[in-house]
Amino acid sequence: MTTAETPDTRAASAGGPLRGVKDIPYYQEGLPWVGPPMAYRKDPFGFHLRAYRKHGPIYRTRFRGRVYVVLAGLEANDFVWRNTEVWSYGATNTAFGEQLGSGHVTQLDGDPHKARRKTLKPAFGMEAIARYLPVMDRVIAGELKAIPGGRANLAEVFGPILLRVNSRTTFHAQLTDSMVATLEEFEWQFLFGTNLGRWRHLYYARPSYRRLKSQTFRIFRQLLAERAALESRPMDNFTALEDANREAGNPPLSQWEKENDLYLTLVAGIHNTANLLYWCLVYCASRPDWTARLRTELAAWSTEPFPGMQMFPLLKATIQEVMRLRPGAIVLPRHAGCDFDFGGYRIPAGTPVMHANTLVHFLEEVYEQPLEFHPERYLQGRSYPPKAIGFFGGGTHICLGMNVTNIHAPVALANVLRDYDVHFEESPSFEVRLAVGGNRMRANVPVQLVRRESGGVS
Ligand code: HEM
Fold it and tell me: Do you find a cis peptide bond into 57, omega within 30 degrees of 0?
């Protein structure tokens, strides 16, 4: 892209001559250097809110050992998502390529990314996921029932359940308990490492991680071999990808492509959805009045046939509100792939940028009383600007698995709330515990799921 084509946000520009990165106000809290990262860790949402209130939609701050230009607010969401070509995903998401192969979707840019997203559509379109609703419902009900004594760590209960759901729906496979444990642990450690910047090399070099990764890929190869030995191919989403590839006239999928498609259809994203479900149950526990109304609505829950989410407005509102209050990816690092202008500043190619994609969730000019859990805000046809929610990111790299989560989350939440009382051993904390950049809970939060007398059939 030439300088003459440099994208900009005129709305956010002061209109005068463009200034340079050094002129962008620096946001400081606490001690020099360590103050901002410490303040972010303590209160990630509040940190960027205070910075935004002080400096507006563009400021600089220190994060992960370097100074980033931060873009925040509605105009930033619009700019970042509308101008995907500005960003080099290859430079930001290098770890995905290193760990999962250089064709992995999230570290591709431009046409190769577009082409890869197109080939993945048959497995991640809404129809391709929603057709499994009754199976998902049955598997989740069965898995919840099988929890011994109903006692579980709420922070870790949904990951394995969703993996088993995927193994009955999007990628048919017979998973042993030990396979589930390995795949789940790999997903956690692998994603954790992607957030570590340059330190990831040390993290991934640990012998325990290398063993875990080789066990994981051994499982992938075993599952693919078992599949190849079947008399007829399962009619799942992995097969849909193979078929679409053949129909497009491409050569058969390589071993790497098969392993990557297997990863995406079986394992990817399970902890993100599990984390969302965790927070849904914590917030529901804080509003017994709302939960009682929700349970009344869920008495009609059925997936055979599924009457549509419009019949469950309270369930939908609960999930929407928790997505707003406890997003998994609070900020998204970006790398300027070319020069661009924003808010009256010229940002040169190569600048590390942080997109505060979820800051808008906490702006009172967009959401009244933004810190409150108030799912009622979504009822009676009330809607918010599409750029006011950054939960799944946006633009051409918007979360590939959003339809998966948008189905898994209501099905799992409906099953838990309709059939169980969730007794917390201790009052749950609302503190956001960060796994480096993202809100990913890995904690011990013991609960007992006690079967409700009035629970529905399962
Ligand atoms: C609560 C659930 C989830 C959350 C909060 C979440 C969040 C996100 C976010 C913020 C992005 C980055 C978008 C951007 O760069 O602008 C993303 C991308 C992605 N997500 Fe998710 N995700 C979730 C579930 C899933 C699931 C279930 C899958 C399973 C396939 C998945 C697979 C991906 C992939 C492959 C990408 C990269 C897409 C691309 O770069 O084209 N995610 N997700």
Answer: no
